[in-house]
């Protein structure tokens, strides 16, 4: 008879006890996904159908006027499409209402709200009925923010053929100048496409190629994932918020080639380097039409004391005429037209200086 300690049952028990530490150490690696969540296939299908309609309609040179839109014979008067990307209340709607007042024939509004957001405060008249259908969930460190912006662009392209400029904003953005100043800036800036060609309006989008974090951001999805479509020397970074000319808005919703790379989820371990919305738009436009972009943004953001990837958030005690004057200053040709990030409590102080400072040059 074999000794007790050589019994198969005893050996099995010993092996089980010895395996427990290994399981504890390896479980996180075995159970956690290698990448962050991907965009659901159903969302992709819905978006593709929307984008195709927008491109086809834009290519035909026609379109149906939506709420606040119109079509006239010949070339319609250019409009600015304000695209609000939000996951919370539009607290600054009263300030934007003042900004829009008297100029509704020159603008349209579109709001993409995260379905999970609970919007408590009712929007002002200009925002009512302007929430787009088909809004999907958004999350940091994912390409969902790109999808939401493309959804807004496509909706605006379909809604009104007079939409010529597309300004992407967040719920924490505020205007720094009156609407006529913005409108003159957008219409006056154009570049000569060459002899025999008409002059084209440029897009205001930040495009940078030498940021210290560019390497980590490029490889956030893994080695060689971006190749061959996006080599490292073509990879760019820029602000999430921009003003695109119409041809560039069409270019964005038409794109499939680069989108197939940028929609790839980042690796879990590279989450802190994953900001697809800050790369897709500047990379795409710099690869396809670099001379058609100013390479700077009209939206001022203060990164001097950023926390966890978020810029400085202005508080009520910081709001003043002096602050607005400082935020307007730009290293580009034109003054900043918008600024973020403002805490909701800033609405009162901002409204107090709206007529005397913000909406007055």
From TrEMBL:
Topology of the protein relative to the lipid bilayer: Single-pass type II membrane protein
Pfam hit, one: Branch
Keyword Glycosyltransferase: yes
Residue ranges of the TM segments: none
GO-annotated cellular components: membrane
InterPro entries given in the database record: BC10-like, Glyco_trans_14
A GO MF label: glycosyltransferase activity
Highest taxon of source: Eukaryota
Keywords: Glycoprotein, Glycosyltransferase, Membrane, Transferase
Main localization (coarse): membrane
Subcellular localization(s) per the UniProt record: Membrane
Keyword Membrane on entry: yes
Protein name (database record): Uncharacterized protein
